[in-house]
Design a protein that fits this description.
Length: 613
């Protein structure tokens, strides 16, 4: 659309800006342009919950276009949870609606004195009073705004968890699509910004409509493969049991692995989940439609909501030794309504269960709740306490790192995170490439940033060594990491991209923007985006080489049984080889000055001069 909005919540001022074509091509969109703008406009040392921390919501050039799976938007800002660069990717209907309302992105500075929401309406913008929405959950908020604005308005909002500044809170649209990670719901809550509503009918310009339609027809044929069919039938819940069996899914707070420790894995996987599905759900114009709406008709967990994703099933399932799928459907709905990241919330409960088992906390600390492994009532009760910041929930609502600091007594040993971010439900002892990504990406502990773990992508012409061969993974880590930055910045869905030949990315970008981009340019652009996010952290005094990998993530000590028995991954060699390939030094992860110049990032050298001395 070529237009973005800046909102000063302190003054109520609204300003439109128009990025140059050169800036658009260099940074694509989403968190690419977002990183460029926030880096240059925000001072280092900004309080993540202070008024000067910029909150951005941005789309990519393929969002809301005929490009297959172009439905994504990204939320960004300095993470209140980790203090690093933070971003969270989300699908559904909101991203395309932001475009249809006339804007590629909206950025918020300052802090409102009272709750407000922003209405973007067919090229016009207005801040409105949200006093009547404050305290409402995300589903109630969406219903109330639909009543006021009409059903065509799409809403992204925070729930009570974000209002109460829980550092594991998130932003929800479609009543169940979550921009989940980095604790950005707390940043939105700190600004007293309850919601953003977007409506409009503006069309995103396309450079070559005939070429786009031809590409769409060509790549739709590729969505008939096994992965696309599995996603369409089941969604991400398809392989929960497989992940448990193979050792991909963490279990009992990452302390054991293998189906013998969790024999009920089939009860939270595949057919057992979609048995509750009332209808399929798809993001905007998605031909795969991996989502679904589910209903538990009766009993203690009666509810309706979105089908839980794999990450949620593993976080509240295998990681808590809970095989009751109805309880997970219920707790997933609670998290969606209150606006909580299910990965972090489930991880916090698993951490608390181990602390309870080890005697570090007792029923006195939990208001009488017996936090036993697999206890569905306890899981539900603690989730609600986290959502409301009550009781033990006050201790857990800011993530496992801070919970361990509050509990003390060596509880940090059981807090599985990287630099404050709870780890996703993919074990690097099974897929070692995730270890490098969890440690080195600017958003620590993130599985959606690509890397060698995604070596099965179609059309990737880069060698990917066998899983247990730790040397030689750097090229795949770089290539796939760079590619995913472009995928995320362009507004594409990762799952859809993995179902197609990766050449679809530059081809769709070229047809829609007219830029004539190829794979080589995608690689350089992805490196530029990833490096700038990394420079944001370095300027804040945060180097990934200072992050510590929890022993359970790498296999120190190694497990004694199960599919990962005896496995200790060599994270040091994978990190070293990646740094060397990228031209980052081995002490501080500082990129070579000339490489920054070559990437067009020379403007950052002055900020980092002290680090180079």
């Amino acid at each position: 659309m070529g237009r973005m909005l800046w909102v000063d919540l302190s003054s109520g001022r609204l300003d439109e800006e128009f990025p140059s074509p050169e800036e658009q091509r260099a940074y694509i969109g989403g968190y690419g342009i977002g990183a460029r703008l926030i880096y240059t406009r925000q001072k280092p040392g900004t309080d993540p919950l202070g008024p000067e921390n910029i909150l951005g919501l941005g789309t990519g050039p393929l969002t809301g276009t005929p490009a297959i799976i172009g439905s994504r938007f990204v939320v960004m800002g300095r993470s209140p949870l980790t203090g690093t660069w933070g971003d969270a990717n989300c699908g559904g209907q909101f991203g395309p609606a932001l475009k249809a309302a006339g804007y590629d992105a909206v950025y918020f500075t300052g802090q409102s004195e009272k709750p407000v929401y922003l209405l973007l309406d067919q090229g016009r913008a207005e801040l409105r009073d949200a006093a009547g929405l404050w305290g409402k959950d995300t589903a109630e908020t969406e219903d109330l705004l639909h009543r006021e604005l009409g059903q065509k308005a799409q809403v992204a909002s925070i729930g009570p968890a974000g209002e109460k500044l829980s550092l594991v809170s998130c932003i929800i649209n479609d009543k169940g699509r979550a921009a989940g990670r980095s604790g950005l719901g707390a940043l939105m809550g700190s600004k007293r910004l309850k919601a953003i509503a977007a409506r409009g009918s503006k069309k995103t310009p396309v450079a070559d409509g005939d070429a786009v339609q031809a590409l769409r027809k060509e790549y739709l044929k590729e969505l008939q493969g096994p992965m696309a069919k599995s996603l369409s039938q089941y969604g991400t819940c398809a392989d929960t049991a497989w992940s448990v069996k193979k050792g991909d899914a963490p279990m009992k707070n990452w302390s054991v692995t293998g189906a013998e420790h969790f024999p009920g894995a089939e009860k939270i996987s595949g057919d057992a989940v979609i048995a509750y599905q009332t209808r399929k759900y798809g993001c905007w114009h998605c031909p795969i439609a991996c989502g679904g709406l589910v209903k538990v008709a009766e009993g203690p967990y009666a509810t309706e909501g979105h089908k839980p994703e794999y990450e949620t099933l593993a976080a509240f399932g295998s990681n808590c030794l809970n095989d009751d799928v109805e309880s997970i459907i219920k707790v997933n709905d609670i998290c969606n309504r209150y606006g909580l990241d299910t990965i972090s919330t489930g991880s916090a409960i698993a951490f608390a269960m181990e602390c309870y088992e080890k005697g570090l906390i007792s029923v006195k600390d939990t208001d009488g709740i017996q936090l036993r492994w697999g206890d569905t009532e306890a899981i539900l009760a603690i989730t609600e306490q986290i959502a409301r910041r009550e009781g033990i929930g006050e201790v857990l609502a800011d993530g496992v790192q801070r919970a361990a600091e509050r509990i003390g007594r060596n509880s940090a040993e059981f807090a599985v995170h990287v630099h404050g971010q709870e780890l996703p439900m993919h074990d690097p002892r099974f897929s070692p490439g995730f270890g490098t990504t969890y440690l080195l990406d600017a958003t620590p502990g993130r599985h959606t940033q690509g890397g060698a773990a995604y070596g099965r992508l179609s059309g990737v012409e880069v060698p990917v060594p066998p899983r247990k061969q730790y040397q030689g993974k750097a090229e795949a880590q770089r290539f796939l990491g760079n590619l995913f930055h472009v995928v995320n910045a362009a507004g594409l869905c990762t799952f859809g991209t993995m179902c197609m030949n990766v050449n679809a990315v530059p081809r769709f970008l070229s047809a829609i923007t007219g830029w004539d981009i190829d794979t080589d340019e995608c690689q350089q652009t992805g490196e530029r985006i990833g490096t700038l996010r990394h420079l944001f952290n370095l300027r804040e005094g945060i180097s990934p080489l200072d992050h510590s990998a929890p022993g359970r993530m790498v296999g120190l000590p190694p497990l004694s049984d199960g599919p990962l028995a005896g496995v200790t991954i060599d994270l040091d060699i994978m990190v070293q080889e990646y740094l060397e390939l990228m031209g980052w030094d081995l002490q501080k992860a500082l990129p070579q000055k000339q490489r920054l110049e070559d990437l067009g990032l020379g403007f950052a050298l002055g900020d980092l001069e002290a680090l180079y001395s």
